[in-house]
Specification:
Blueprint (H helix, E strand, L loop, with lengths): L4 H17 L7 H59 L7 E2 L11 H6 L5 E2 L4 E5 L2 E10 L21 E4 L10 E15 L2 E16 L5 E3 L3 E2 L6 E3 L3 E3 L3 E3 L7 E4 L3 E3 L3 E3 L13 E5 L5 E3 L8 E3 L16 E3 L19 H5 L2 E6 L16 E3 L8 H9 L5 E3 L12 E2 L3 E3 L15 E3 L15 E4 L4 E5 L24 E4 L2 E9 L11 E11 H10 L16 E8 L25 E6 L19 E4 L3 E5 L18 E5 L2 E4 L33 E3 L12 E4 L1 E4 L27 E2 L7 E6 L1 E3 L26 E6 L15 E12 L6 H7 L15
Parallel strand pairs: 8-11, 8-42, 9-12, 10-13, 11-14, 12-15, 13-16, 14-19, 20-31, 30-32, 31-33, 32-34, 33-35, 34-36, 35-39, 36-40, 38-41, 39-42, 41-43
Antiparallel strand pairs: 1-2, 3-4, 4-6, 5-6, 6-7, 7-44, 15-18, 16-17, 20-21, 22-28, 23-24, 24-27, 25-28, 26-27, 29-30, 30-37
Helix pairs in contact: 1-2
């Protein structure tokens, strides 16, 4: 029976009244009344003490419970962050969760007492928070098509398969394909071996491929006074976004959602005089209708989600969203050419050029090769290097002695070779590269440097090399040919090196100067390398049709004796590193119009996709990955990507030796001395601003581009507005070096920038018609987002991705029906019912 103090007091009061009424009749009642009063006072004192004790105990229990809750909440946040980190790059969590070994319907108790702790990323992990012992563990919820309660593992890799979704309408990034990983995360707080809080959270980790954005920038992005330009895809930046066009009636049109973690600006970021906001900008609304984003006069106009004038952002619905959380992306370090870096480790083929301190080819590791294939651990693979340089299925011929020469030799002049038989090498070899010499008999005396064929008359091979350079068989004796009757083989090069391309933009570290530099290239014949990869098994057990990571991955780099520059680490944040000298190296891809093997090999399977990666600048020369049929089943187009420190586009007319594109000044004027040819032989040169430009021809490229890009203003943020440091904007994402006036560059792909360039340092200086700038004239930009990338199955191999967590359910769980819980519940403090504040 439950005690009722009010009823007890009422009964005592009635007793006292009755005693008073009978006081005249009976004696000794005074003592009774006194005793009764003492009883009442004692009861009140005892009640007060009990209430005080209960209140103190309740307060202490509440404090312990709150501390337990916050400790358990901290555990949830910590483990959620660890899982999110796993998804950056190309890793995902693996392991097994703890089990219910004692069959009591609970897992957390086994985790806490150590009877079942799981493995890997899902294991039970203890830590201490505000005097509470906290244990966390994770259970993965994967695709379960057969409804057996066990997540599917179709690929047999030991981890649950993700759930493929399209982001639902109404959510941010609606319509994008994503892989969704679902997890149940549990966190238990204990004090003195008793549970003070048991918290659970179900969350989704959504992984979105970056190549599903038409434009994605980690830093500030700007469209710098572009001509008419239409982007049929999403545009996102983790910084600020500047939208502008050159002048009226030119128009920048974006038919896709626009999101930015910073502020949206209408206008140009760099200084343009009084006309900072110009032309027309149109963005498609959520309802599908176009609407202009207006200027406030001629000045830069800022927009946030609450801006109502001069344009009301709310009328775009979800099509414009500013100030969103920064999307996590892979670090540029993931592209380092070192073991342990994500892309190096994942590559199927790694090709490295060794150079000395002067940038010349050098066999520094002494294995007989300056161009070599390397293993994942960075060690050279001599067997595969030999196959690459000597055994690929390419045309070859043998040199013959020149009988007219005295003494007899293999060459006429310094760059003209005599062939014994020209039938094998063929006659249509102009603008190709050859190697000269035989690795089998004499690996040292092999010339792989800058042997670019200029023409093939009769039985000659005529080469164009850099000014004043000669054929080189022996590095120690440039003109010392092997003694007759030695055999010298001339082979079409699959991978070679040259230093004939002159880059007028790279200013050799001199701010505002007009000196450029020669670039030491690793030249890659893309189709020939595909042929050789199949014929000579250059990728080991990996076949051309391998589907791992979506297809084939090649990593091409230069191994230098000194540490490579990291120019994105700018100490003053505004000089754009003009005082530093950047890299003189690059990778040039040519003959890539078809990403399929040629007739030189038979029985080769069709590739699934190809991604070429370099930590140096990449130069794409000519058509790349062309469509050949509107029927996808017949089309030879393949998902393709190029990831590099910077990306340069050279047209189909660009010659590999750059011989008829050099600009020499021998007439004086423009500050140049008379009778001095430029570029000079010391790797530097001066531009003759009045000389004719390099002329381009129409070129088509179908590949996603990922590279570093300069930041207009030199750094992120509004504080760097209106200065003269230009990046060229998104419309100059690929770098140009030719006269494209009136010539189309047809591009379909995705433009992703994750950082500033780390290897090169020169600012954008404008097009050729600007003062003191003779780099290029812009093309007709027939550019568009490749809609095939919206299908996850058509994404290029190793597509980088962003990941964000989405909380689905929070629960506070303490099941009184389990035997363990029943045992502990009586002595456990009351569990808190506060909702947590998750930092996801």
């Amino acid at each position: 029976m439950k005690y009722n103090s009010s009823r007890f007091h009422h009964s005592l009061f009635q007793l006292l009244v009755r005693l008073q009424q009978t006081r005249q009749k009976e004696g000794g009642y005074s003592l009774v009344v006194t005793v009764a009063m003492l009883l009442i006072l004692s009861t009140l004192l005892i009640s007060a003490a009990v209430v005080s004790k209960v209140d103190t105990a309740s307060t202490n229990a509440s404090a312990r419970s709150s501390n337990g809750f916050y400790a358990a909440e901290a555990g949830l946040n910590l483990r959620a962050s660890q899982i999110q980190t796993q998804f950056r790059g190309f890793q995902r969590p693996t392991g097994t969760a703890p089990l219910d070994d004692n069959n009591d319907g609970e897992v957390w108790d086994n985790c806490a007492d150590g009877s079942s702790v799981g493995t890997g990323d899902f294991d039970c992990r203890p830590f201490t928070f505000q005097g509470q012992d906290v244990f966390t563990y994770i259970q993965e919820v994967g695709q379960d098509d057969n409804l057996d309660g066990v997540p599917d593992d179709v690929d047999g890799d030991g981890v649950a398969d993700p759930i493929s979704i399209v982001v639902p309408p109404g959510e941010r990034f609606a319509g994008l394909s994503a892989q969704e990983y679902r997890y149940d995360l549990w966190s238990v707080a204990q004090r003195n071996d008793l549970p003070s809080a048991v918290l659970g959270m179900t969350f989704k980790s959504r992984v979105i491929p970056l190549f599903q954005f038409a434009v994605f920038y980690e830093n500030d992005a700007d469209f710098s006074i572009p001509p008419d330009m239409t982007i049929n895809g999403r545009v996102h930046t983790n910084g600020d976004l500047y939208l502008n066009s050159a002048f009226n009636p030119l128009r920048l049109t974006i038919n896709g959602d626009v999101t930015t973690a910073g502020t949206l600006y209408r206008g140009n970021k760099d200084a343009r005089g009084g006309q900072q906001c110009s032309g027309n900008v149109t963005i498609r609304r959520q309802d599908g209708n176009p609407q202009d984003l207006l200027c406030q006069g001629n000045a830069i106009t800022s927009y946030t989600n609450t801006t109502a004038t001069p344009s009301n952002i709310s009328t775009w619905g979800t099509a414009i969203d500013t100030g969103i959380d920064v999307l996590e992306v892979p670090s540029p370090d993931a592209y380092n050419p070192t073991p342990g870096s994500s892309y190096w480790d994942a590559a199927d083929l790694r090709i490295v050029l060794e150079v000395d301190t002067n940038g010349n080819p050098s066999d520094r590791n002494g294995n007989g090769y300056v161009l070599e294939v390397r293993n994942q651990d960075g060690t050279p693979n001599d067997n595969l290097s030999e196959r690459l340089l000597r055994s690929c299925p390419v045309p070859e011929a043998v040199l013959q002695p020149d009988s007219d020469a005295s003494p007899t030799q293999y060459q006429q002049g310094k760059t003209r070779l005599q062939l014994l038989d020209n039938s094998n090498l063929g006659t249509n070899d102009s603008n190709r590269i050859v190697t000269i010499g035989d690795h089998v008999t004499d690996s040292v005396n092999v010339d792989v440097d800058s042997n670019v064929i200029s023409s093939r008359p009769a039985t000659d091979v005529r080469l164009r090399k850099r000014l004043n350079q000669e054929i080189n068989f022996d590095p120690a004796n440039p003109l010392n040919l092997p003694a007759l009757p030695g055999t010298i083989t001339v082979r079409k090069a699959v991978v070679s090196t040259s230093n004939t391309f002159y880059n007028y933009r790279e200013k050799h570290g001199v701010a505002g100067g007009d000196e450029g530099r020669f670039i030491r290239m690793v030249d890659v014949d893309v189709q020939a390398l595909l042929d050789c990869s199949h014929d000579q098994q250059l990728m080991g057990a990996t076949q051309l049709n391998d589907r791992t990571d979506g297809g084939l991955v090649w990593f091409v780099t230069v191994d230098t004796p000194d540490p490579k520059p990291n120019l994105s680490d700018d100490p003053d944040a505004d000089s754009d590193n003009n005082s530093q000298v950047g890299s003189i190296y690059g990778v040039r891809l040519y003959n890539g119009a078809s990403l399929n093997t040629s007739a030189a090999v038979t029985g080769a399977p069709t590739i699934e996709g190809l991604t070429v990666i370099s930590d140096e600048a990449v130069y794409v020369r000519g058509d790349y990955n062309l469509h050949t049929d509107p029927d996808p089943a017949v089309d030879t187009w393949r998902p393709a990507a190029i990831m590099a420190d910077s990306i340069n586009v050279l047209s189909n007319s660009s010659l590999l030796d750059d011989s008829d594109r050099r600009i020499f000044d021998t007439t004086g004027g423009n500050g140049h001395p008379n009778n001095i040819q430029y570029p000079r032989g010391d790797n530097r040169g001066t531009i003759n601003w009045n000389a004719g430009p390099r002329n381009s021809t129409e070129t088509t490229i179908n590949a996603a581009f990922l590279s570093g890009t300069e930041i207009t203003g030199g750094a992120n943020g509004s504080a760097t507005q209106l200065n003269t440091i230009q990046s060229g904007g998104v419309n100059n994402f690929p770098r140009f070096h030719e006269n494209w006036s009136g010539i189309p560059l047809n591009y379909r792909g995705s433009l992703v920038s994750l950082s500033e360039p780390r290897r090169i340092n020169s600012d954008f200086c404008g097009s050729r018609n600007e003062t003191t700038c003779n780099i290029y004239s812009p093309p007709i930009r027939n550019w568009d987002f490749d809609q095939r990338f919206n299908d996850a199955g058509d994404l290029p191999p190793l597509t980088p991705r962003t990941v964000y967590l989405r909380q689905e359910l929070f629960q506070r769980d303490f099941d009184r029906n389990s035997s363990r819980s029943v045992q502990l519940f009586a002595s456990a403090p009351i569990l808190p019912s506060i909702q947590p504040n998750f930092s996801l």
